[in-house]
């Protein structure tokens, strides 16, 4: 399994989701941002058969991390650089770390494009924010070490996580899993 390269439309959706969460939380550290996104995405996939974001979550020691978003945050917080006109700038130019000593704290430089978000996206994001925003890092890390994370971690550290296992970990029933698998096959044929 490899890390998916996001289209411009997928980057714009990811940007809207990230800005939505950061604005709802006022400021947030990227660890909590990653876990809020993971649990919202997992729940949405399990319930509706569609992911909120198309970023590939990878199994890192403290839990799932969205790979493209993590790269964009490293650029935004001056922990890394990107080539000129990189698609990462779609996100990295919209967020910042207000204090370089606390580079892991993020704030939004703009409001989200709400037309990018469906009501079901918002509902799952709001539920995840409410459930996870104030949970300590160790508890949140342990909570995120679900079947999808363990499966990827056992293959190789920082390995991409299987989206179907994410849906299962989010509570998807067998008929939803079959629906997701069918859609994945259709998407492979279409692209």
From TrEMBL:
Residues 33-149 form the Antitoxin SocA-like Panacea domain. This is DUF4065 domain-containing protein. InterPro entries: SocA_Panacea (IPR025272). It comes from the Bacteria. Pfam families: SocA_Panacea.
